[in-house]
Please model this.
Amino acid sequence: MSTAAPPRIPFTEKIVALDRAFAEAGVPYAFGGAIALAYYAAPRATVDIDVNVFVPVERSDAVLALLASLGVSPLDAAQAERLARDGQARARWETTPLDLFFSYDALHESCLARRRRVPFGRGGDTIRILAAEDLAIFKVLFDREKDWRDLREVLFALGGDFDAGYAREWLARILPEDDTRRRRFEDALRA
Model:
């Protein structure tokens, strides 16, 4: 009798499985983070999957049940509380962190309307990702050094194709005028 653990699902197969499951269930979504970044700038390594789920937190039980059918572990108590409080949580799919961001703001509606479908992998699959400007807005809001590096990469790669006005408008709605993140964003645009 073997006690070996079942083989793990490869990272890229998890991304395709999420796309298919969300599509079949009619759950609007878009990948963000390093997965989306790879379509706009130099790719960087990642071990997690960031997913914007464009449904309100009140419908999260159905989304979590869908994810459980794929093998995603249930949220622990701390993450369930975070989901209720902040509209986001971290689940686990085997060893892969799955960061879920649910809709609670008009920005999310705009992200939904602007998401893109892009080719993924070698099997002819496609996935949904955030638009570059929406990804940039979240990078500014998260305000981590790696996010600022990512933002500079996106701005460099896209140049004049980046809609700075759109990003400025949303940042002005979300952040106070004196918030240092707004100044940092403007500095990044000028670099």
Q: What stands out?
A: The chain has a mean pLDDT of 96. The radius of gyration is 17 Å.
